Structure formats: C-alpha cells, structure tokens
Predict the 3D structure of the following.
Amino acid sequence: MQFDITMPIFLFLLCFASIKIYKKFEGKLKQILEEKEFQIKDIIVLVAVMGVMISIMVLVPSLALTVIILFAFSMLLFTFSLIATEKWYISIIPPIVFILLYYFGVFLNIPYLWNSYITNIFATLFAIMITVYVGGLFTWKTTAIFAVLLTAIDIVHVFLTGHMVKLAEHAIESKLPLLVSLPVLPPIYTEKGLAPTGLGLGDLFFAGMLSIQTFKEMNRKYALYSILGISISFFIFEALLLTYGIAFFPGTLVIICGWFPVMLVQKLREKTFKAV
C-alpha cells in the first residue's frame, strides 16, 4: 500500500491560511463588493460558464492561452495588492515581477528565475487570493449548490471529455501556475525520478472556499474539522490512486467526500439540540 502525506498536509495548511486571510480582509472585501451575494441563478450560470471555459481553453492555441492566463493572473495580483495596500503604485509591482519572472524564466529559458518552486508559490498565492476574494459572495445555500454542480462538471471533464486532463498537461508543459506539484512522501521512485503529486488551482480554490463558508456559517472549530476531514479524505483517495496507478481523478469529489460528512454530523447535532 503506497501513500502520501505531502499533499494532505499542504491542503490543510492552504485551507487554514485561506480562513485566516479572509478573516483579516473580510471588512474591506464587503465594502468593495458592496455586500453583494450570489443567488442560485448566478451559481448555475457561473458553473455553466466554468464548464464551457474549460473546453474552450483546451481548444485555444497554446501561446494564446498562455497570454490569457498570464493577463488574468496579473490582474488578480494587482487587484488583491490594491486591496491590501490601497496604493496603486505599490500594487503594480507584484504583477510586473510575475510577468518578468515568467518571461525570462520560460521564454528566455533562465531556470533559476522560473522553476517548480516558483510555480508552486504563485499557484498557492493565486488559489488563496481567488478563494478569499470571492468567499464573501457565497451563502451557505449557494455554497451547497455550487459544490454539487462543480463536482458534476469536474467528473464530466475528467472521465468523459478528458478536457481537465489536457488542461493539466498544458499547465505542466507551459509551466503555468495552474497547479501545485509536490514530491510524494514517503518517496516513490519511477523511471523519471521521484513521483510527484499534483492538485489543480480549481481544486485548491474549492477546498478553501468550503473551509471559509464553514467558518462563516458555523465557527472556527468546525471549520478546522472540515479542513481535517478534507485532508483525511485526500490522504485515503490518494493512497488508493497511488497503489493502483490511477493518474487522474476528480479532486472536487475527493474534497467534498471529506467536507460533507463533517457538515452532516454538525447539522444533525443542531437538529437534535433544537428538538430537545
């Protein structure tokens, strides 16, 4: 039986960091977003657009897709920096640094300016920023609907269309920060060296978003329970995938399998206490 502790620990820390950062910027984000919240129809449209965009991204030429993603991430860096500093002349520095590092490291092939470590750092930052920025737009009801629909879309694009797999392969080839790739621990050796374990930006956002919503709806204790549940679920599923040599599996399904039991137990406990 093969297993990995790297990604479950990383996932726990990322979700925990998302909650802490959201708590720090919650007031500013509410002001910027003007207390707006997603409605059910917004969630349906959002997930539908995400599903279509995944298919379109697979069909877009490699260079064009790279430019689009770099622009989107640069805007995200600028927006979040502006929220944090409230000074535009400081906020333009992070996206400029990001673009320069990628250009010189990837296009001009200077390894020490762009490697797997830097890719992981930016992918982690982007996952947390997206999670924190949209965290206030979700309610408990829209979170549940979003979780079900997104998991369904993920299953379709992994098992039926294969588009999620192709997108992950493109991210690896183009060295875009669309996923976090870490070495498996305990180490597993293959013909290509140490076996890696990876998780996409969407999956990281999904785990962080569920953690933030649990924190908002319940409290910090149950948010930590949910994070622990997600990490344990990932540990179990990843052990099965590594043991049986399965390369790709819907990360959202793994995450929701860890999150849902904790929420179900808590809701049942609340109903029991109310009945008493």
The first strand starts at residue 179 and ends at 183.
